Amino acid sequence: MQTYRNIELSFMGPPHHMVGDGFRVSQYFPSGKNLFKRFSPFLLLDYNTPFYFSPTQNPRGVGAHPHRGFETVTIVYDGKVEHHDNSGNHGVIQEGEVQWMTAGKGILHKEYHERGFSKQGGIFHAIQLWVDLPQNQKMTNPKYQTLGKNEIGFYDTEKVSVRVIAGEFKNEKGEILARSKAQTFSPINLYNIFLKKNASVFLSEPTDYNTGILVIKGEVKINAQKVYQEREFILFENMEGVIELESLSEDFCACVLSGKPLEQEVFARGPFVMSTQEDIHQAFIDYEEGKFGTWSF
User: Fold this and answer.
1) Which portions of the chain are predicted below pLDDT 50?
2) Structure-derived torsion over alpha carbons of residues 293, 165, 221, 3, reported in degrees to the nearest 10
3) Do residues 83 and 101 lie in contact, with contact meaning Cβ atoms separated by under 8 Å?
């Protein structure tokens, strides 16, 4: 008989708001729930539920802005996102792809709908996460990773598909079934699960990892007990046990976030996340003094 990992809480995201003019998001945390300590290393989850953007000649998005002390992870389900930063990085990601940007000691970047997608218009559907950096890595050099089919780990059966963005995916026996090539600063397992109707899958995450699931599409029965709906976020207790997902829909999708907590203080103010109030203050000084680099990119 399986021992299940208990569910600690579940919640829906708050009302949507616009980020720039290209991202219509519900911020599950920290706005919906302040989980800085409880869900480390994950700081923020913005979910752009499927939304139609009409055609335009001027790509929608967010103009140049700074970050320091953490990483941004953008996961695209529909549409295309383009990225530029002042470290010389540029990339376009589409359905099934991910961009992983390390802000580190400071970066200026902009992100917007790719020009072809903007001109055509269509459904845009994506997640953006903020992932904390360990205190001794917060001033690391900025970095950018595009994660496509050659970097993402794949596991497929007739009714189950898993796409591993970071870390690895294990079955209930602890056997590694797929692994990502993404580079992370702390242990993280991040993956999308796709299930056909009545298909089941068992997740085996380390006991000390903070683990949560966002239901992207469909309905799911978790641990052979309660049913959860599209757009619900489920947080699990840190304990021994597996997590069972059984799809009740023809096509089910969920994003699984699991990571080892960093056991450090979180001081967040605007676009900066540091481990002390003094470091936050210094971030603003450095930004105002132009130490984040050029705006010409």
Assistant:
1) none
2) -110
3) yes
Summarised one tens digit per residue, pLDDT across range 85-140 is 999 999 999 999 999 999 999 999 999 999 999 999 999 999 999 999 999 999 99
Q: How far apart are CA 100 and CA 73, in angstroms?
A: 5
Q: 37-62, pLDDT tens digit by residue?
A: 999 999 999 999 999 999 999 999 99
SS3 of residue 119 by DSSP: helix
Instruction: Identify the bridge partners of residue 163 per DSSP, sorted by sequence position.
Output: 154, 192
CA–CA separation, 286 vs 282, rounded Å?
6
Enter the pTM of the model: 0.97
Tell me which amino acid residue 247 is. S
- For residue 101, is it left (φ>0), alpha (ψ between -120 and 50) or beta? beta
Say how far apart CA 223 and CA 201 lie, in whole Å: 10
271's tokens: 């676009």
Alpha carbon distances (Å) from 128 to 42, 45, 98, 181, 286: 11, 6, 10, 19, 26
Nearest to 291 by CA among 73, 139, 144, 185: 139
Q: How far is CA 157 from CA 78, 215, 220, in A?
A: 23, 20, 19
67 and 288 Cβ atoms separated by less than 8 Å: no
- Rounded to 5 degrees, what are φ and ψ at 287? -65, -45
Q: Which residues face 101 on adjacent strands?
A: 72, 144
Neighbours of 211 (CB within 10 A): 22
Domains and CATH numbers, the chain: 16-148 (2.60.120.10), 152-260 (2.60.120.10)
